[in-house]
Amino acid sequence: MIEDDDTDWTGTAPDREQLRIVEALLFASAEPLSDGDLAMRLPEGADVAGLVAALAEDYAGRGVNLVRVAGKWMFRTAVDLGALVREDQPEERRLSRAALETLAAIAYHQPVTRAEIEDIRGVTMSKGTLDVLMEAGFIRMRGRRRTPGRPITYGTTEGFLVQFGLEAIGDLPGLDEMKGAGLFDQALPAGFKIPVPSDSILPDEEDPLDGDEHDVLPLEAEEAGAGTED
Q: pTM (2 decimals)?
């Protein structure tokens, strides 16, 4: 609900009808919307940033907040009320420890191949682990590494950012934050570090996938590329 005395951060009252449009679009959308998505439905020249800022301020402190995830906007239950809401929802399928470790390896090391994931974790990966993460919408096949066998590379998706409330992959916690949260023993080996995660465009050592490869399972795609070289 928009209060009559809402103003944006400049102190200028936003257009009431445009605010209502933005609020309705975000409320009705099942997916986060970008500034561009909103601008397409607003009058030409509308101050999208100002409208969103005013709406976010209006919803701050309420049971539902307007938040920015994956560079887009969506309404989300306030963090402190999340547990109450989940009590009335069907129990979601939980990822196994192996799947969570694999997801973390991909998130921090992307673009990364299956063999590299196994090297990071120190164990051989189950055939279905990558399939589970892809079906959940958390990872995607990015491309093929320019090495013998041309292995598939993996990275995270927009769905991953939405699920974990991140605006960008670079917002994942670093080593100092993990230490502060008690996730690591303070006495770590010398030289131990966590890579800075990035989901940037294909690097020089990675080729894009062919169109047909996006529709196959990870194992099938790996086998299709085995034995081939540049």
A: 0.64
Q: With a cut of 60, say whether residue 229 has pLDDT above it.
A: no
61, pLDDT greater than 70: yes
Note whether 154 and 112 are within 8 A (CB). yes
Q: Which CATH class is domain 97-225?
A: mainly alpha
Confidence of residue 160 (pLDDT cuts 50, 70, 90): very high
- Counting other chains too, the contacts that 159-162 makes at CB distance below 8 Å and 24 or more residues apart are 160/103, 160/107, 161/69, 161/70, 162/32, 162/69, 162/70, 162/74
* CATH number attached to the domain at 16-86: 1.10.10.10
Pairwise CA distance, residues 3 & 98, whole Å: 48
Contact 143, 209 (CB under 8 A): yes
Which own/partner contact pairs does 75-82 have at CB distance under 8 Å and 24+ positions apart?
75/26, 75/27, 76/165
Could you state, in order of their start, the residue ranges of all structural domains in the chain?
16-86, 97-225
